[in-house]
Amino acid sequence: AKALGKGIVVKFDPSMRADFERRGRLEIDLKLALKNGDIFPFYQPQVDIDTGKLVGFEALARWNHPELGWIGPYEFIPIAETSSQIVELGRCILTTACIEAMAFPDDVRVSVNLSVGQMLRDDVIGMVTDILASTGFPAERLTLEVTESVMMSEPELAARILNGLKELGISIALDDFGTGYSALSYLRQFDWDELKIDKSFVDDLGHDPRCLSIIESVVDLATELGMKVVAEGVETADQHEILRKSGCHIAQGYLFGRPQPIDQVHVTLLKSLAP
Ligand code: C2E
Ligand code: CA
Ligand code: CA
Ligand code: CA
């Protein structure tokens, strides 16, 4: 028992240091990446759950880093949020999505994620108005997806902003429903156009009867409230069938297509037009 008193050992895990360094580097590189167009949307198909017909795409951000390769949004969105580059990132993804979706058929919509930080920190209504004007993309074909966390910190402000966006003609989706606290009060605070059932619920569908009951009730409730219900993360034909029977309207997941780059989207669109 030697060296009592100076025996405090701080365990040092080299992988923690690597994570820390990578994060620091990404935070620095983010600014240039946004300027250089290294961050852009992939598009994941959304289909009518009954007919399988393509109804739209969700734009999902990807970073093609010149040295580190592809980086996913779970890694860089939180960095963008804390370093306040989320406003620029959001502007960048929305602009590109609107430009690229101009080439989609008239009945194909596009959904874009809006982060809490972006929504409460910036003049989002002004930004969206400008982007719609400069790209010419019709507001009626755009959906913005927000998670319930927007309603948590400043519910009145959030509802005011969301109503302003709706007045532009845009649809608003409540994303990731079923995670977090999912208080039913969020369904009351705003007239959502769409409800997205989180993948974690869809995952458990086949083997958890309680999960099925919850989904059926949520679908009924949302439908009653005039919302379209989208199921996220549909991977199997079984899940598809169960969700279809539950009355879900739209499905999104690997079963119907992964997020894909814009040139692949054009191939998907050609196929969807084929007889
Ligand atoms: P999200 O909005 O819930 O998007 C759905 C996520 O599930 C996507 O992950 C998508 O690739 C993935 N996914 C879809 N279908 C399946 C499936 O069948 N199986 C599995 N295993 N995964 C599936 P992704 O693209 O990694 O995005 C992660 C999250 O990052 C998104 O979750 C969203 O919250 C955020 N995000 C992505 N792009 C943006 C953006 O442009 N702005 C903001 N603010 N957030 C974004
Ligand atoms: Ca989303
Ligand atoms: Ca989700
Ligand atoms: Ca039903």
Q: Could you characterize what this model shows?
A:
- With 275 residues, the chain is α/β, with parallel strands linked by helices.
- Helix content is 48%, strand content 20%.
- The chain is built from 12 helices and 9 strands.
- The chain has helices spanning 14-36, 73-82, 86-101, 116-121, 124-135, 150-153, 155-167, 185-189, 199-204, 209-224, 237-246, 262-273; strands at 39-48, 54-65, 69-71, 109-113, 142-147, 171-177, 194-197, 228-231, 250-252.
- It has an 8-stranded mixed beta barrel, surrounded by 5 helices.
- Helix 8 (185-189) links the parallel strand 6 and strand 7.
- The longest helix has 23 residues, at 14-36.
- The model has no long low-confidence stretch (mean pLDDT 92).
- The structure holds ligand C2E and calcium ion (CA) (3 copies).
- One calcium ion binds at residues 176, 198-199, 232.
Helix content: 40-55%
Shape: globular
Mean pLDDT: 92
Head-to-tail CA distance between termini: 81 Å
Read across the widest sheet, the strand sequence of neighbours is 1-2-4-5-6-7-8-9
Rg from C-alpha positions? Answer: 21 Å
The biggest beta sheet is recorded as: 8 strands, mixed, barrel
Label the structural class: alpha/beta
Number of strands: 9
In N-to-C order, the SSE pattern is: HEEEHHEHHEHHEHEHHEHEH
Q: Could you name the ranges where pLDDT drops below 50 across 5 or more consecutive residues?
A: none
Kindly estimate the percentage of residues that lie in beta strands according to DSSP.
15-25%
| Separate helix tally | 12
Structure ligands: ligand C2E, calcium ion
